[in-house]
Design a protein that fits this description.
- The complex is a heterotrimer of chains A (272), B (422) and C (411).
- Chain A has 272 residues and is α/β, with parallel strands linked by helices.
- Helices cover 38% and strands 25% of the residues of chain A.
- In chain A, strand 1 and strand 2 form a beta hairpin.
- In chain A, helix 4 runs parallel beside helix 7.
- Chain B is built from 17 helices and 2 strands.
- Classes of the chains: A alpha/beta (272), B mainly alpha (422), C mainly alpha (411).
- The interface between B and C is large, with 92 and 91 residues.
Chain lengths: 272, 422, 411
């Protein structure tokens, strides 16, 4: 058992260094506080480009909190304070000059529960592009919506019901609509916060398939409850426990021969 | 449990007598008519019917004020004493019979008691019934409102044509009180009153809707908890100020202010302009718009807000394009309730709007409203059968129906909206 | 791209500014209302008066009070300042400078202190409202005579009186302790305040038990069926019916049908309690609902009856919420005037009411009556009454807030 913080940190660095892909997101010493309570303790984690990184750990371990640091969604919470250093493409996203609106337009996010806006399917997908004023012509917008829905594997199912409210779709369709909505703003990163926790197994399988396809074009970070899902979709896995990053490494390694007993206990289901 | 035995007996012995006392109180008038007045007219021959009525009203108020009547020489002391005696006698009789009834009932129920007697269930059943009776009071109030309004309105329409009232464009009820004018029943065209009401309501809403909505947006989406704690009470105080204060303020300060502003830019403005009354009413209504809108916007699921922010929308864009559309039904019903409040508002318009029923859409001129006319027609002594008095009830009925429709409509919208999110 | 962003950020700032400005406007209006009331009420709190030398030496203790010419005594005392005033019309004009209440106050004083008969003493007598306003500087003497209430002659007299050093500016006790009057310097809002308090107590006595019991019935005993559904919808609607409709109801039912007299707090209280009932019912129900169902289930499991659960467990923990709701409802009734106008509580009532069948008026209605009066001095009186009304309401609401903070049960 290695509980000494310094040792753990050293090891993480080591793990980060032996990665084979170029890292897009670099986090160093990230602390998060909710009021007086500290939720994350000195997280050091690099996330590689165009691969899927899954964040696992028992409930309340801070994995969602960490995810929300990456697109600064924690700014929304009044009492939340983030310290440390997060760089995307070597740009410090917590630098005072960074425009959080612009930052978020480069990062897509999919939430735990599908949250389509109370608008039509079309307007849901077109919302982002319209907002950012990147697409001015109706035809281009139509094409964008179609392409996004296609990439989210939803086009064939909704192409005749684009005018219907997004809330009228089934749960799985709604979640894929939210993914299409996120894709439509051409993000480089997609954050997914337990995207399948509210879905049935069939819908979950579809989403997982989709994630696998999307990783060719996007850097995906997914928070998940299900170890199987992490094993199925991700290339790298990070295990969080009580606000600390215990271990990070190739998914195969984490699941087969983790360095830490805690990780092993968790992935084998003896604990958590 | 002995306490229930006691309760059981006391309930039995008091309920019916209390009920009878209430009946007696309500029908004191006719009770006096049948017991006291016949005696009065027999014994004191020189009293006319008006005088009897006068004596009666004294009796209803207070038996001791008879001395005033005696000292004013209205009736002789002997007659008065007889009257008092008779009145007291009837009181003693009714009171002692009530006590007797109470004792009998108590005794009967006491006899039924035994150790095994389940008094608790019976007591609870009686209490439950009493609760039910109380809960019907609210319904009885509505029934009372509807029946009294409809009854008087029907009497009104027996004197004035229905179409003359609903579609008439000329309102001048004052001529109706002159009974010597045969055939002249005044004109009761209610259109100008309703246009006046609408005009003032429109002015009020054009103030209250934007200010109330923007306040609600700021409070629910932007204000930090501390700012909110400081700013929200301001709106609450605004809602708590009595309307008579607003009315006084409108008549004293805003009316002359609007008038001099108008004169400054070369407009003729009536002192009691619709604009002044509407402005103040608008301020009064801001909290009604803002508090309900605030509630519905806060109730929009946070996930929608987060979804929009995560797509790189600014907060303003999120509010305009996601939160307001999602909360729209609630906001619409807030506005409807505010309109209904404005239409039914009385004191501001009574004090700051005019009496002249002008059919105009010009907010700078003086108009009158439905509520102003109700008050004007009914304040002071009046007979209950003149068209002038009854017209107030017809107006009241229309006011009731309109506000009820608005409220019900708003309630249905809110209910639908709740279903969508629950 | 960045240009687009800056436009969007500017739109954001504008949006926030609109919200902030709206709130500031609302706050400004509130400040303006309160401020203008304070400013306009300033002349109301004091009243100019003069110490007149009262000569009662010619009156013997045997005389009946009715026979004493108090008016004449005051007249001669006042005229002694101006021996040059001879004509009757001038004398009448001079006498009109002081309040017509002077002779009554002197009489009341003598009745209470008969020892002053046979003596010479100074007695403080109020000026009339116009003279009072002149001393306070509200009469613009630069205007032409016809445009003001006091002509040059009267202004000269008042200035002369002031030079005698007998003129004083005292706190106006009348404002706080008297009933209504035609004379602004005598009128006070005490009668109306008492009327309001009596009316509100009737409202409380009627609406509180009925409201609470109704809520308990609907919340705990009523079987969900059409009748109770109807009652519920009804109550919600009743809460939004304009108050003037309740006045019409009171007029038609209580006064016309049941023959109750006009202008009495009993009828006013009845009408207001019907109006307050929905507020109390709704507040009681929501505070009963906030008691967690586990409490109720625990008590039921212990073998308590429904009735015992309600009175021993639910009601005690819901009580703070019920009180708060009741106080808020009563505060609204306290400030209400429209229905009272219709049931005749708008009458001119000098006496201070003592029971709930004495003719009375209410504080908000008193404001309405005074606001309608032509005398200029009533503007200040009205503003002062307004402030008292708002102050009382703030106190009542503060009580509700404190009650909630102090006794609220958190689950």
């Amino acid at each position: 058992m290695k509980l000494n913080g310094d040792l753990i940190m050293d090891e993480q660095k080591e793990q980060n260094n032996i990665r084979n892909k170029k890292s897009l997101i670099e986090c160093r010493g990230v602390d998060v506080f909710y009021g007086d309570k500290q939720a994350l303790f000195g997280i050091n984690l690099d996330i590689g480009e165009k691969e899927v990184t899954s964040l696992i750990g028992p409930s309340g371990c801070g994995k969602s909190t960490f995810l929300r640091c990456i697109n600064r969604m924690n700014d929304v919470i009044e009492i939340c304070k983030v310290e440390g250093n997060i760089k995307i493409d070597n740009e410090d996203i917590y630098h005072p000059d960074v425009d959080v609106v612009e930052l978020r337009s480069r990062i897509g996010m999919v939430f735990q529960k599908p949250n389509p806006f109370p608008k039509s399917v079309y307007d849901n997908v077109a919302y982002g592009p319209k907002l950012h004023g990147r697409i001015l012509h109706k035809d281009d917008l139509d094409a964008k919506v179609e392409k996004s829905l296609e990439r989210a594997g939803l086009w064939s199912e909704v192409k005749d019901r684009l005018g219907e409210p997004g809330t009228s779709l089934s749960g799985g369709q709604q979640q894929r609509l939210c993914i299409a909505r996120a894709i439509a703003i051409d993000p480089s990163i997609i954050l997914m916060d337990e995207p399948c926790s509210a879905l049935d197994p069939i819908a979950t399988a579809k989403i997982e398939e989709l994630i696998d396809e999307l990783k060719d074009n996007f850097t995906i970070t997914i928070v998940t409850h299900s170890m199987q899902q992490a094993a199925r979709v991700s290339q790298r896995t990070a295990f969080f426990h009580l606000g600390k990053l215990i271990e990070v490494g190739d998914t195969e390694k984490i699941f087969r021969s983790p360095d830490h007993e805690q990780t092993e206990a968790y992935v084998t289901g003896r604990y958590g | 449990m002995p306490i229930y035995h006691g309760l059981y007996v006391s309930l039995w012995s008091t309920l019916l007598p209390i009920f009878l006392i209430i009946l007696l109180l309500f029908f004191k008038d006719s009770y006096l008519n049948y017991i006291v007045i016949p005696f009065l007219s027999e014994e004191t021959i020189d009293l006319g019917i008006d005088e009897i009525l006068y004596v009666k009203s004294f009796l209803i108020n207070n038996i001791s004020s008879l001395s005033t009547l005696i000292s004013s020489g209205f009736i002789s002391e002997g007659d008065a004493n007889l009257l008092v005696e008779k009145y007291q006698e009837s009181r003693v009789v009714s009171f002692s019979s009530l006590v007797l009834l109470s004792i009998i009932l108590g005794f009967v129920s006491y006899k039924k008691l035994s150790v095994r007697y389940d008094a608790r269930r019976r007591v609870e059943r009686i209490l439950k019934f009493i609760f039910f009776v109380f809960s019907t009071i609210a319904v009885l109030t509505t029934v009372g409102i509807i029946f009294s309004l409809i009854f008087e309105t029907l009497r009104f329409f027996s004197q004035v044509g229905f179409f003359d009232f609903v579609f008439g464009t000329h309102w001048s009820p004052q001529t109706a009180i002159r009974e010597d004018q045969v055939g002249s029943s005044g004109s009761f065209g209610s259109i100008p009153l309703f246009t006046g009401t609408l005009l003032i309501t429109a002015v009020a809403m054009s103030i209250a809707a934007p200010l109330g909505l923007y306040s609600a947006i700021f409070l629910s989406q932007y204000a930090k908890p501390k700012t909110r704690d400081f700013l929200k009470p301001i709106l609450e105080i605004l809602a708590g100020i009595p309307t008579v204060v607003y009315g006084f303020f409108a008549a004293l300060t805003v009316g002359p202010f609007v008038r001099s502003c108008g004169e400054y830019i070369g407009l003729t403005v009536a002192t009691e302009s619709a604009l002044a009354a509407g402005l103040v009413m608008g301020v009064m209504i801001i909290p009604y718009v803002s508090s309900l809108s605030d509630d519905v916007m806060t109730a929009v699921p946070l996930s929608l807000r987060d979804g929009s922010l995560a797509l790189g929308a600014t907060k303003a864009e999120t509010v305009k394009k996601v939160i307001i559309p999602a909360a729209l039904p609630g906001i619409v019903s807030a506005l409807l309730l505010a309109i209904s409040r404005a239409i039914g508002e009385t004191m501001i318009v009574v004090m700051a709007a005019g009496l002249a029923a002008n059919l105009t859409a010009n907010p700078l001129s003086a108009v009158t409203t439905v509520t102003v006319q109700i008050v004007t027609l009914l304040v002071g002594d009046q007979e209950f059968d003149s068209a002038k008095t009854l017209a107030a009830f017809a107006l009241g009925l229309m006011l009731f129906v309109i506000t009820l429709a608005l409220n019900v409509f708003a309630m249905i919208i809110v209910r639908r909206y709740r279903e969508r999110y629950e | 791209m960045s240009k687009n962003l800056s436009i969007r950020h500017r739109a954001e700032k504008r949006f926030i500014a609109y919200g902030f400005i709206s709130l500031i406007l609302a706050a400004t209006m509130l400040a303006t209302i309160i401020g203008s009331m304070i400013y306009r009420s300033i002349p109301a709190y004091t009243n100019y008066s003069i110490d007149l030398e009262i000569n009662m030496t010619e009156i013997s203790a045997e005389d009946e009070f009715e026979d004493i010419n108090f008016r004449g005594i005051i007249r001669s005392s006042l005229f002694s300042f101006f021996p040059e005033v001879e004509s009757r019309s001038d004398k009448r004009k001079l006498f009109k400078l002081i309040s017509s209440s002077a002779s009554y106050t002197l009489r009341d004083f003598i009745i209470e202190n008969p020892s002053y008969i046979n003596k010479k003493f100074y007695f403080n007598v109020l000026f009339t409202d116009d003279s009072d306003l002149f001393y306070k500087g509200y009469v613009d003497t630069s205007l032409s005579e016809s445009e003001r209430r006091l002509d040059n002659q009267e202004v000269a007299w008042l200035n002369e009186l002031k030079n005698t050093g007998r003129v004083k500016n005292k706190i106006s006790k009348n404002l706080f302790l008297n009933g209504d009057s035609r004379e602004p310097e005598v009128a006070g809002f005490w009668g109306a305040t008492i009327g309001s308090l009596i009316t509100i107590s009737v409202t409380l006595l009627l609406s509180f038990p009925v409201g609470v019991l109704t809520a308990i019935y609907l919340e705990n005993f009523a079987v969900k069926n059409r009748i109770t559904d109807f009652i519920e919808v009804n109550i919600n609607n009743l809460a939004a019916v304009p108050s003037i409709i309740f006045g019409l109801l009171g007029l038609a039912v209580f006064i016309n049908f049941f023959g109750m007299p006009r202008s009495i707090p009993l009828v006013g209280g009845l009408v207001l309690s019907l109006m307050t009932l929905p507020t109390i019912i709704i507040a009681t129900r929501s505070s009963l609902q906030s008691v967690p169902p586990s409490i109720r289930e625990a008590a039921l499991a212990m073998g308590a009856s429904e009735m015992q659960v309600v009175f021993q467990h639910l009601l005690p923990s819901a009580l703070p919420g019920i009180f708060t709701g009741t106080i808020i409802g009563l505060a609204r009734a306290f400030g209400e005037s429209a229905p009272l106008l219709l049931i005749g509580m708008v009458a001119f009532i000098v006496d201070i009411p003592a029971t709930f069948t004495d003719p009375a008026t209410a504080l908000p209605v008193q404001i309405y009556i005074w606001a309608d009066s032509p005398e200029r001095a009533f503007v200040a009186k009205t503003s002062a009454a307004t402030l008292i009304l708002i102050g009382l309401l703030i106190l009542i609401n503060l009580a509700a807030v404190l009650l909630r903070k102090r006794y609220e049960v958190k689950w």
